[in-house]
Structures
1.
Amino acid sequence: MTLIENAVAAYTRQFGSAPTAAAVAPGRVEIMGNHTDYNGGFVLPAALDKATAMVGAATGDSAIRIYAADFRREAVFSASNLQRDPHNSWASYVLGVVDQLQQLGVKIGGFQAVIHSDVPGGAGLSSSAALEVATAFFLKQLFPFDLGPMQIARLCQKAENEFVGVPCGILDQFSSVFGIDGGLLFLDCLTLEHSAVKMGRDDIAIVICDSNVKHAHAGGDYTTRRAECMAAAAHFGKQLLREVTWEEFIARENELPENQRKRAKHILTEDERVLLMRDAAKAGDTARMGLLLAEGHASCRDLFENSTPEIDLLVVLASQIPGCIGAKMTGGGWGGCTVNLVYANAVPEFCRSLAARYKERTGNIASVYACRAAQGAHAVPL
Ligand code: GLA
């Protein structure tokens, strides 16, 4: 059964009727552009064939009933008085989107819905953005509103910033909305100009390796990094590190506190790597892609300091396996996943070997699986 079919079956069991609307929104992997988004920089992600489905119907009253099929919990709210439920914090991603739409004057009435997802949670693959974006595409069918795809991505980011309280950039929501089947995405987070990036060869697979070390960056290290970047930019009289040139940085980097100097250097070099990686991917230049992935990881590890020993080990182990083009950490950091680019014919042995070597060295079980770059969020006809 597909994700949607499972969600529909769960809806019928839970609510005793058939849903009238459905939407899916994918998770994402960031190939390059780590923490560049809120600095106004460049990103190069792909949406994945791991997604969140939302199916449901309007009820005509003001009650919002959401059933999370994956952990069998139902939460109930009122559309006329949105209140967070501390026992069901997962529902805040849905409510945050309702809240933003209401702030724009969209009349959101009562509805009941089922959420079902195969995006691993807390792994750095943007299960949160997938839920926000699925909610927006679902609600658009029940309570039509006139927002374009970029406006929806920004609205979902704002929902996470303001309602959930996570100061994320736009990378995740952008990727979930704009995903391209079989392609990467490029976004300039300052101008919001974006394009699809087709890899110059079709024998490259994306392999995700989840260290199964969970992370939570709400309020913690993520916020600290963001503040360090903003402080570094302010030192140069700029709002965003994107606006600081290399000349300016080199002339005055020594005036910065060491942590801010390192964070800024990561961002400045990472922005360059995104552009180089975009070109290397288009040209199918795997040697260069491998080098850039290694540099990107080293920069996260040493300058941005958002990796972990397990993730560092996974990157080293991956690079020793035949058929691996390159590997790096992906997402917010402090655990989660690595992204590996691997020649397609080497994928089964790569996955087996990486998991075995990681287990041998740490005793931990990693989840290693190939993903496809997938289409972005869309409504699904029922
Ligand atoms: C998380 C955030 C994104 C981005 C990445 C790091 O996924 O939600 O906005 O900052 O970390 O690139």
2.
Amino acid sequence: MLNRRAFLTRLIGSLSVTAFGPMTLLRQAWARVLPGTLAADPRRPQIHLLPAANWMNDPNGPIYWKGNYHMFYQYNPNGAYWGDMHWGHAVSPDMVHWRHLPVALAPTPGGPDSAGCFSGTAVVHGDRVALLYTGVVAASENEATIRDGEHSLRESQCLAFSTDRDLNAWTKEPLPVIPTPPPGMDVSGFRDPSPWRHGDWWYMVVGSGFRGKGGTMLLYRSKDLRHWDYLHLLSQGAGNGKSTANPVDSGDMWECPDFFPLGDKYVLIHSAEGKSFWQAGIFDAKELVFHPEQSGVLDYGSFYAPKTQLDANQNRILWGWISEKRPLEEYRASGWAGMMSLPRILTLDRDENLCMMVSPEVDKLRRSPQTLILSDKEESIRQQLARMRISDGCGEILCSVKAASGEFHVSIVGDGEATQWLNVKYTAARPGEITLDEKTVPLRSDNINEIELHFYIDGSVMEAFVNRQIAYTKRFYYPGSSAPPVGIRISDKTNFSSLTMWQLSPISSNRLTT
Ligand code: FRU
């Protein structure tokens, strides 16, 4: 959060010598990028959800309601930079094709969200949909719950309701439903409420933490979503021991918690230190205590602040914010920043490890398959791969590699051999790990004969999955006005047992997802 906000604060700070000077300069600096320019930017995705222009971050309150999927997200209507947080809104029949709807939540002057509507959750309550979200207001240092060296903001948990079929009209409760953290608690943050229903009660975790001690989740309970009782900490981390201005960076503040049943276990998710983490285990519903048994990293790349929902078939779907990895000045000038991940179905394997795969809804976009004809002759494989191409920067590659055969090195390349966008390396000598670019990450390898590699490539993003257990979201940027052709390259020792490549059909005619 610091980095996004830091830019804005620094810019305003450096310009605040005259009353109207900053606004004039800000308007110049953030001149609107025209829709035609955005539509022609080959780095903009064609199958990922993002606003028609400007900045987005976290998914907020994804929900299936009256036959449609609704996605809300952190949105700045003023430009492609973090600030002035609103809840953007889009609707879809299938989690793939989206239509933008008017902004759902905007800060109310003088209200508990006057400085921003931060992240939260949507739930169905009776015949209405409720949004629980964090409102922020400017506050003095000693009243603030966000003190990160750049900001002084007070957070409270707020509530809004909608009854209409399209969820267009929202009525906010004028006062916060949880105005302050529990009395006597000196917390490092207090945000991103995440409720769930259990029996007759609503339970809710709120992301929080203690400086120098670690991140945490505060557990609350309510009958009506309006009156909440604080119970205890549902989970407590240890932090990384570093002393950072922003407690999120030291793991002393956990953002965007989510807690949900999966099979006969429970999963807890939180985000901190630039990554998102999962824990799976047992929820003692009597004592209201979570006993984690397994844990891991949800995605090793540009993926943060995820949120889950149930789809129409009761699958648990994970959505994440895919952030930019180019300099802030560059994305601000491009007129857009950030996108939503593809919907990923979560499951637990028999050892309680979290697995994920992109929802089969996305398979509907496949066209023009190109399949590798297997051969013992290395030259034949090379020649075929050299001809296989994804054009227009939007496609999918699914392959299986024989792990027992020793080692392999697979690269996704742009422009022939010229640019390696992603490298995957494996050696049977170290079966418990795999290397994605520079990162070597654990691979659960019991009885692995084949390693499945799955890549979704779209404009300037690649979502990569290894054996449905490792996810790695990669951003890559290239100059110019068209996307280079994408291909796959291999080392001598790579031994495929299958490989297919598809073009993926854009979800809108103009990259604006309208
Ligand atoms: C995570 C986060 C949340 C907060 C929101 C503000 O990226 O920092 O904790 O509610 O973004 O935009």
3.
Amino acid sequence: MFEKILIANRGEIALRVQRACREMGIKTVAVHSTADSEAMHVRLADEAVCIGPPPGRDSYLNKAAVISAAIITNAEAIHPGYGFLSENAGFADMVKDHGLTFIGPSAEHIRIMGDKVQAKITAKQAGIPVVPGSDGAVPDENAAVEIADGIGYPVLIKASAGGGGRGMKVAQTRDDVRESFKVASGEAKAAFGNGEVYMEKYLAHPRHIEIQVLGDQHGNVVHLGERDCSLQRKHQKIFEECPSPALNPKQRDEIGKVVTTALKKLGYYNAGTVEFLYENGKFFFIEMNTRLQVEHPITEMITGLDLVREQIRIAAGMELGFTQKDVEFQGCAMECRINAENPRTFAPSPGTITGYHAPGGRRVRVDSAMYAGSKIPPYYDSLISKLIVQGSTRNECIMRMRRALHEYVIDGIQTTIPLHQAVLDQQAIMDGAYDIHWLEDFVAQWVKDSPAKG
Ligand code: MV4
């Protein structure tokens, strides 16, 4: 096992990884920008190295600075958290080339899944159901029209280098397809340096359901069930729950088997998430994330596993200590992402937290690096806390989340807590009857009905 790990991240996820390390008796090295000198992830680490000025590209995204910090502190492995360098295949290669271990999948798997056309071809070949569409990249405008006619309208044009909703265009007609193809490939070329696009049937009202997996370097792969992440705004998730209110145990079992069989075939290891759109009882693969995800704690709540501990054990070459049969799901869990934002406009609200009191009590977990006096710099994303609760039933979970939100005091900045409170009062949420469009529609109405505070 590693004796010392460098954590190449900041905020709550840096702290989350530190917690797993400390519980495993592993020493931790924090890295930080000059904006984060006073941050909790720096204070609680065994050692800390300043790696550059505030902007991410000059610090947390600076590969050479991060690797140098690992070398001078004698760290043996690097955990990237999520975001920043977590899905950067070049970084994973560089870590390995310096004799260090990247705590994540192989650079090759990161590379394949980072290219959305390759990812889809790979998933399909491995037996995962995909959205009907072009077989791979669409070469030109005329091909685009021909393929769209075959798929049936509306169609969606997606950038191969995009993902997470970046570079998507809906086309309702043949003329739309011609126009959207040009615009989409031009934009993709400008934004990602790669103009390749592909096409899919547009699914009008799906849910976003993702399957969590863990694989070791000995060919074992298990799935840890699904998370329903349909509540998003501008492709930012704000609330997640598991199990999905839309699935029954048989469906879970079936999609879980399909996914684990496929990933065994691919030789995938470490943590991963296979993302699906789910509509009319059917699953359609869209992307795979080759990292630990923000919302991993809800899976931990209902499985009793520590995903970061498993990631570290896997990276150290150990076998998974359990099989699929050992994985049991206990009740329900939900996560509210608390962002330093205006809850109606979602404008960032950086500043100083003047007063802070986190909720506690039974089956409540708060993953945050905030404290009274915390400064929230304007340079990074606005997630400041994740409030996670578990309940024996879905209703118990909702009641517990409401009471935990009521207890949460964050003074000095604006947060998305009032939005979560409003969302959890909606009948559609209580019924579990929502899709990927529900939240945006709700926010529009909510802002109209209660424009000021409340
Ligand atoms: C789609 C889709 C409808 N049909 N693909 C957006 C993020 C990216 N990962 C995939 N996305 C979508 N792909 C087909 N064929 C609708 C979306 C989509 C979406 C997906 C998940 C969660 C929220 C979303 C919001 C708008 C659009």
4.
Amino acid sequence: MSELVPEPRPKPAVPMKPVSINSNLLGYIGIDTIIEQMRKKTMKTGFDFNIMVVGQSGLGKSTLVNTLFKSQVSRKASSWNREEKIPKTVEIKAIGHVIEEGGVKMKLTVIDTPGFGDQINNENCWEPIEKYINEQYEKFLKEEVNIARKKRIPDTRVHCCLYFISPTGHSLRPLDLEFMKHLSKVVNIIPVIAKADTMTLEEKSEFKQRQESMPFAVVGSDKEYQVNGKRVLGRKTPWGIIEVENLNHCEFALLRDFVIRTHLQDLKEVTHNIHYETYRAKRLNDNGGLPPVSVDTEESHDSNP
Ligand code: GDP
Ligand code: MG
């Protein structure tokens, strides 16, 4: 019975502006060690990152993801069997890898979508891709509402979708617009102009004038060349070597910095807090506020008295 205790009286809970206190005078507390604690935790558990590539065959999607992660994380067209034809519909393939750098493990999944935009009639070819993205949200939701839910739900949700625009056109084709219109509601899309080395400077600037800083005009390569005594990733042409990471040659480095060095965590957070949350709210709403029915959960027992 707290009201019988006369002293000390708790202060009324008046919301106050937090006052910044300089702890230097009072001695070190150790608040800043949270950074080190978080670092250790990430080192121990690693983190997931799922990246999807979309665009017509031959635009350099596989080459670019291999360039981004400096490893063979995506199968290139050249390693294909000659008999292997262009798939009749969009085929979706997810391949997982573990990449380690500085003791930090990234569980990278590259989701390839061969067949997108390769048909004569490409109407609605974004649909299987949207379906795949939503299926991953559904999987996550089912795990989340499970009574015996896992501590760490396996995350297969697409955190980032690189959309490859053909360098031949002077602007976006109807297919590009349709894709971005529909998919930007469910996933983070980063548009890139593929094979930017095949465009003239005028073409490039004309293309970019229509939009903002995006799309990044990129060049991919997994071959190294010696330039001024340094080994660089590049493409050798009769006119010289196009250096992938040289900002005077293309914007690959800007894309790499954005996706990996400055916004990777943001891409994951937006996926969880906005795209997944929207899916989840809609799903629970449609179901009258109840979690989705799943055979894995205990619902099946409800019918038994
Ligand atoms: P995907 O079908 O979109 O995955 O394309 P690939 O990555 O398999 O590449 C198709 C072809 O284009 C290969 O011969 C690559 O060497 C070439 N290629 C890839 N990236 C570039 C680029 O940035 N510029 C040029 N000129 N060619 C590229
Ligand atoms: Mg490919």
